Amino acid sequence: MSTARIVFNVLGAAILLTIVVVGYLQLTRPRLRDDGPNGDQVQGLQQAQAQQQQQERAQIASNPDPFLEESDVQIAHTGFINDYFAVKSFSLLNRSHFPLRDIRGMVEWLDSSGNVMGTTAFSLGGSLPAGDTKHYSTGDGSLASVTIKGQADKARMTFTHAEPVN
Hints:
The protein has 166 residues and is α+β, with helices and mostly antiparallel strands. It has a domain at 64-164: Sandwich (Immunoglobulin-like), CATH 2.60.40. The protein is built from two helices and nine strands. Strands 3, 4, 5, 7 and 9 form a five-stranded antiparallel sheet that branches. Strands 1, 2, 6 and 8 form a four-stranded antiparallel sheet that branches. The N and C termini lie far apart (87 Å).
């Protein structure tokens, strides 16, 4: 037998052996099913989601400030002899997954150096849907804001209370 014929037979045997091994592995490996999550997986996902919602509710109850973002803050400045300041209106974004109500907070009035000159409280009427932005104003009664006497250059708002609706 010639060398070429031997090499040809060895290569043929190697290819045949590879086909047999691959076929065997195909038959014996566990099959992955792609027919969606099973009951245990669905229940696990529901439990994880419920736990996340509980955690978010607890975070809102202890510190709602990270879930609320104010913008377009308008300050009322009045007085001739004495200066008086109050928050007149602002827009508020609810970043939580829950509608919120009974939203309250504090305004720190700052001088040009950033020193706190005084603090006043505010409260908001109605509820704020999850993921929504709403405008609050003393003019329409949706914002109750306390006036402070003194000199202030800036206001810093902090949200101290909010209740998830559902």
